């Protein structure tokens, strides 16, 4: 008999267990990078504060869509309801903060609106998350290869632990095949990939990455969010996916205020850099927990 194979990522990851009365950060993670990337944040939180990651990739209807063409048999609302049910099971009655990175911020915002008053967090923290508002609800063909290739280079650098720097001007107007040659050359030069990495192998990784983005874009396109009944805190990376908009479109959804902060790193490395984790830790700490001495507002 063959040993049973792992069927996929877990939905819930307890990266730090809370001490009595210290509270927990619940963070919605959309995959792309493994949930363990948030260990930098767990280490930066004040002593005794817990960190639980809710990994959307642990839901087959979401996670498998990145491997099967980018069309998910679900909706933002259904994902939020599933996580809200899971959170109700996990919640120990103590203080907590709800956070979400990237597309996880969209689901976290929808999830917060489903919470009964007794379970609502005191704030919602969004980590380089693009709002599901009309200006950012774009058709698939708006995601041009030059844009996607630049994002892929950032992702590849974070995944491999070495920066992959490709000048945006060199990617402009290029197709996927030509653009991936530039990405591969930059990745080999930095040591992120072996010099003999095959272009077809890199193309396969790129296609999976893009299918994940298309999945999120297609889930967001028909979604109509409600304005948030909580104060919103938005942390944008120095190299955000959308560098020209410091609000990432969240203004119309934040009638109770939108607090803006910046973090070192790019959209992906902001999750693993200790200096970025220090910034984020000071913003996600639950109510009543003192501000950690090493966190810096930016």
* Major sheet strand order: 1-3-2-4-5-6-7
Strand tally, please?
7
Order of helices and strands: EEHEHHEHEHHHHEEH
Largest sheet report = 7 strands, mixed
Pfam families: Thioesterase
InterPro entries: AB_hydrolase_fold, TesA-like, Thioesterase
Domain Thioesterase TesA-like: 30-284
Protein name: Thioesterase domain-containing protein
Give a description of the structure.
The chain is an alpha/beta fold and 298 residues long. It has two domains: 12-137 and 223-284, Alpha/Beta hydrolase fold, catalytic domain (Rossmann fold), CATH 3.40.50.1820; 140-216. The protein is built from nine helices and seven strands. It has helices at 39-44, 60-63, 76-90, 103-114, 145-160, 168-171, 176-190, 199-220, 274-284, and strands spanning 12-16, 24-29, 50-55, 96-101, 124-127, 232-239, 258-266. It has a seven-stranded mixed sheet with strand order 1-3-2-4-5-6-7, with helices on both faces. Strand 2 (24-29), helix 1 and strand 3 (50-55) form a beta-alpha-beta unit. The longest helix is centred in the C-terminal third of the chain and has 22 residues, at 199-220. InterPro entries: AB_hydrolase_fold, TesA-like, Thioesterase. This is Thioesterase domain-containing protein. Residues 30-284 form the Thioesterase TesA-like domain.
Secondary structure elements and their pairing?
Layout: E1 12-16, E2 24-29, H1 39-44, E3 50-55, H2 60-63, H3 76-90, E4 96-101, H4 103-114, E5 124-127, H5 145-160, H6 168-171, H7 176-190, H8 199-220, E6 232-239, E7 258-266, H9 274-284
Parallel strand pairs: 2-3, 2-4, 4-5, 5-6, 6-7
Antiparallel strand pairs: 1-3
Helix pairs in contact: 3-4, 5-7, 7-8
């Amino acid at each position: 008999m063959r040993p049973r194979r792992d069927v996929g990522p877990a939905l819930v990851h307890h990266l730090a267990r809370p001490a009595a009365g210290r509270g927990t950060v619940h963070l919605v993670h959309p995959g792309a990078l493994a949930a363990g990337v948030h260990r930098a944040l767990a280490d930066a939180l004040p002593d005794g504060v817990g960190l639980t990651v809710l990994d959307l990739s642990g839901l087959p209807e979401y996670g498998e869509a990145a491997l099967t063409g980018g069309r998910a048999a679900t909706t933002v609302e259904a994902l939020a309801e599933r996580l809200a049910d899971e959170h109700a099971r996990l919640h120990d009655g103590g203080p907590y903060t709800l956070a979400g990175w990237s597309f996880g911020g969209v689901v976290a915002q929808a999830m917060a609106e489903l919470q009964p008053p007794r379970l609502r967090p005191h704030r919602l923290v969004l980590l380089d998350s693009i709002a599901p508002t009309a200006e950012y609800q774009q058709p698939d063909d708006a995601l041009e290869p030059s844009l996607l290739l630049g994002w892929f280079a950032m992702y590849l650098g974070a995944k491999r632990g070495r920066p992959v720097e490709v000048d945006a001007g060199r990617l402009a107007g290029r197709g996927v095949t030509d653009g991936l040659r530039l990405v591969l050359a930059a990745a080999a030069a930095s040591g992120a990939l072996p010099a003999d990495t095959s272009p077809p192998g890199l193309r396969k990784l790129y296609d999976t990455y893009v299918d994940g983005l298309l999945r999120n874009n297609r889930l967001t396109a028909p979604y109509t969010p409600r304005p948030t009944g909580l104060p919103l805190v938005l942390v944008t990376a120095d190299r955000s996916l959308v560098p020209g908009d410091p609000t990432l479109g969240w203004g119309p959804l934040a009638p109770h205020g939108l607090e803006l902060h910046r973090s070192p790193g790019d959209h992906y490395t902001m999750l693993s850099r200790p200096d970025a984790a220090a910034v984020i830790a000071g913003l996600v700490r639950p109510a009543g927990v003192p501000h950690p001495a090493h966190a810096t507002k930016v």
